[in-house]
Amino acid sequence: MRDERLLFDDLSFHLHAGELLQLEGPNGAGKTSLLRLLAGLLPFSEGELFWQGQNINTCRDNFYQSMLFIGHLAGIKAELSPLENLHWFAALEGIKDEALLDKALSQVGLAGYEDQPCHQLSAGQKRRVALARLTITQRSVWLLDEPFTALDKTAVASVENLLIKHSQAGGAVILTSHHALEELPGLKKLTLGEVT
Amino acid sequence: MNQINNEKPAAFCRLTPEAVNSSSLIGVFVAALKREWQLQVRRKGDLINPLVFFALVVVLFPLGVSPTAEILAPVAPGVLWVAALLAVLMSLDALFRPDLQDGSLEQLLVCGYSVAPLSLAKVLVHWLLSCVPLVLLAPLLGIMLYLPWQAQGVLMLSLLLGSLALSLVGAIGAALTTGLGKSGVLMTLLVLPFYMPVLIFGTGAMQAAINGHTALAHLALLAALALVALALSPWAIAAALRIAVSGE
User: Fold this and answer.
1) Percent of chain A with pLDDT over 90
2) What are the phi and psi torsion angles at B135 (to 5°)?
3) How do strand A67-70 and strand A54-55 relate by DSSP bridges?
4) How far apart are CA B164 and CA B151, in angstroms?
5) Residue A114: inside a domain, yes or no?
6) Between A and B, how many CB-CB pairs are < 8 A?
7) Which structural domain range is residue A171 located in?
8) Which residues contact B181 (CB under 8 A, 6 or more apart)?
9) Residue B23: which pLDDT band, with cuts at 50, 70 and 90?
10) What is the pTM (predicted TM-score) of this model?
């Protein structure tokens, strides 16, 4: 339920380690709401959510420590440089490896922009700062809301590749996207907003 | 798969950090302090605004009333305190709004750590950068209002303790109204009743010092208010932020 509108009912799914799940549906179908609900940012009016067999309410901290959520707004501070932004996200995971952060930024194509404030970067470059997080994170469940927005073709392919590697390493990904992700192995789809 | 790999030689690969300490809350708290410091230092306008407001009110007041010592000296504690209180209130309005707008607030809620200490870091840095300069400016403005010398120390100390309480309580209001867009008036209405005790004890301390009594009792009460706010308000802020984000 969102603002008195019923978004979904009778919705049930499992996500196992090594799986990719793409949420599909027209605009307003509730893809983002479902993702925010899974991330614990929206309260749900009915239903239950289980994490590793336990009700989420009993193991929320454990879940948050294994989960990485990147929303439509990625939480990149415009006043800070990409490196400073990444520092914070690394600190949340206890990563204290300076060289690693430099490497992460240069491989997402931000070499030379490390120390510029983010408000001088383009939308795609800001998105890349958020994606640099994906390359360093040790968390296993990724919830990504439109991760491909504003990215160019090669970057989209790179991210797809990253998702594959993550799932092959035993991680799980739920993403919303309008991109066709046919080639990804192990991809499951969940279509919202269908009349059943 | 192979085709994808051939298309782009510069594929993102997963990096494995050499040093992963299990991140402690203290470490994250320190990182949050550092990040907030970097952020707020770069918003120079937001830092200067309350100072200018504070100075302008105190400078304009004698022009509107009378520049003589007989009239200004008795009202000096009240004018200084009211101006400082409103300056603090003004500075708090936009405390959490930028975070909501760029998604940092969501990240804060899902980061896996208790939200209360991390939002406390934000308020503390704000207090350090916005309120402490106010405290340092106050004696100068006190001289302009013929505030007796023996009250200057008490002015600074009472403002230092009082502004901490004001910042912490005001941050609850700011957090509650974060999701409402322009919310200055509502926040003021919410928070102002809780500001009254601080104002009363703050000016009380100065009156006591001016009359040659000890201001210790008033200052102790101010310190108590600040400590209670320090202990309780982070939890209220965290709860309020959760509401603001779920309303998005």
Assistant:
1) 4
2) -65, -40
3) unpaired
4) 20
5) no
6) 142
7) 20-81+138-191
8) none
9) low
10) 0.88
Quote the longest CA-to-CA distance of chain A: 52
The encoded tokens of residue B7 equal 């298309």
Name the one residue in this structure whose structure tokens are 């073709």: A153
Is residue A176 situated within a structural domain?
Answer: yes
Asked whether the beta carbons of residue A80 and residue B35 sit closer than 8 angstroms, the reply is yes
DSSP for A43-108?
Answer: --SS---EETTEEGGGSHHHHHHHEEEE-SS----TTS-HHHHHHHHHHHTTB--HHHHHHHHHHT
Total structural domains within chain A: 1
State which residue of chain A sits closest to B6, comparing Cα positions. A157
Among B5, B20, B103, beta carbon nearest to A73 = B103
ipTM here: 0.85
Residues with Cβ < 8 Å from B103, sequence gap 6 or more? Answer: A71, A72, A73, A74, A75, A76
> Cβ–Cβ of A76/B110 closer than 8 Å?
no
pLDDT at res. A6 = 67
pLDDT tens digits in sequence order for chain A, 196 residues long = 344 566 677 778 888 888 888 888 888 788 888 888 888 888 877 778 888 888 888 888 888 888 899 988 888 888 899 999 998 988 888 887 788 888 888 888 888 888 888 888 888 888 888 888 888 888 889 999 888 888 888 888 888 888 888 888 888 889 888 777 766 777 788 887 754 4
Say whether A79 and B19 touch across the interface (CB within 8 A). Answer: no
Identify the CATH number of the domain in which residue A63 sits.
3.40.50.300
Q: What is the DSSP string of A162-175?
A: HHHHHHHTT-EEEE
Instruction: Give tens-digit pLDDT for B151-167.
Output: 999 999 999 999 999 99
Which structure tokens are listed for B28?
A: 């994250």
Say if A108 falls within a structural domain.
no
The CA-based dihedral angle spanning residues A107, A113, A119, A122, taken in that order and rounded to the nearest 10 degrees? -50
Contact A64/B110, CB-based, under 8 Å? yes
Q: Which of A77, A94, A169 sits opposite B39 (nearest CB)?
A: A77
Residue A113 domain-assigned (yes or no): no
* Look-up of token digits 């799980």: A172
